[in-house]
Specification:
Elements (H helix, E strand, L loop, with lengths): L2 H25 L13 H14 L3 H14 L6 H15 L2 H17 L6 H13 L10 H16 L6 H28 L3 H14 L6 H14 L3 H14 L6 H11 L3
């Protein structure tokens, strides 16, 4: 065979390989095929979706779930499939997918407000914001949104079995907001702008009275008040720190201040 013919033959093989790869890739994006004669196609698709979720094949699971949502409007599995689409986006992660998950959960709440799993949808809606929360030093827009959606859950579904889990996530988000405000107050304190610090520390205690790190808030609020000649207002915060916390890095100093400031 001449070099020219050999080159053409190799080129044909390469083109065939590339075409096969392309077709395989495209075929992976095609809607799942239900076997002919299947008496319960929605159940078939749901089982395949569930299996894909367990294997963390999010895109495959989503295609199966979406087939049920799009093609079987009367199926009793359709609401769960709708949630499955949202869960697949949320589990896969990434900003774009989480935005899509948020849309799926919002639509579920709109379309199925009396469904037995609407509490789950509200929880997962809150989690789409929770997953996008930033560090306390950064913008807290998503944290605020997460707290708001968790509180909607508590208001609407007070008897939900999911409440303990949701409350744990709410506490984390609420603490993130409080920590952000506390750190602003601490910045003001260190910059010696005590009125600004006082406002921030009081805001934390008013909005989140059970903030786990409130010992630091008590201490620096008392210190800020003391530095602005408000001794009578400072003493109760030192006292609360001592009474509410058995262990705190601020306890020793708070006790000393109380011995000095409190009337004998």
């Amino acid at each position: 065979m001449s070099d020219f013919r050999c080159s053409r033959a190799i080129r044909r093989v390469l083109i065939g390989v590339v075409a096969a790869i392309w077709l395989a890739a495209c075929g992976g994006n095609q809607p799942p095929v239900v076997p002919a004669g299947n008496a319960a196609p929605d159940q078939f698709l749901f089982q395949r979706a569930d299996d894909a979720m367990k294997r963390q094949r999010w895109a495959d699971a989503r295609r199966y779930f979406q087939q049920i949502v799009d093609n079987y409007p009367q199926s009793t599995l359709r609401p769960d499939a709708k949630l499955g689409v949202g869960d697949s986006y949320l589990s896969e992660g990434g900003d774009a997918n989480i935005v899509l998950a948020e849309n799926e959960f919002r639509e579920f709440i709109t379309f199925y407000p009396t469904n037995a799993r609407v509490d789950y949808a509200q929880y997962k809606l809150a989690m789409t914001h929770y997953r996008r929360m930033k560090a306390p030093e950064r913008d807290q827009t998503e944290t605020t949104a997460a707290v708001r959606e968790f509180e909607v859950f508590f208001d609407r579904y007070p008897n939900s079995m999911l409440t303990p889990e949701v409350r744990e996530k709410w506490r984390e988000a609420r603490s993130r907001m409080s920590e952000a405000s506390y750190k602003v107050g601490l910045y003001y304190y260190r910059a010696r702008w005590y009125p600004g610090a006082i406002d921030r520390f009081r805001e934390v205690l008013k909005q989140d009275p059970n903030y786990p790190e409130r010992d630091a808030v008590y201490y620096y609020l008392a210190e800020s008040l003391l530095k602005t000649d408000k001794k009578a207002e400072a003493v109760p915060y030192y006292d609360r720190l001592v009474k509410e916390f058995e262990r705190s890095e601020y306890l020793v100093d708070a006790r000393k201040k109380l011995e000095t400031l409190a009337p004998q």
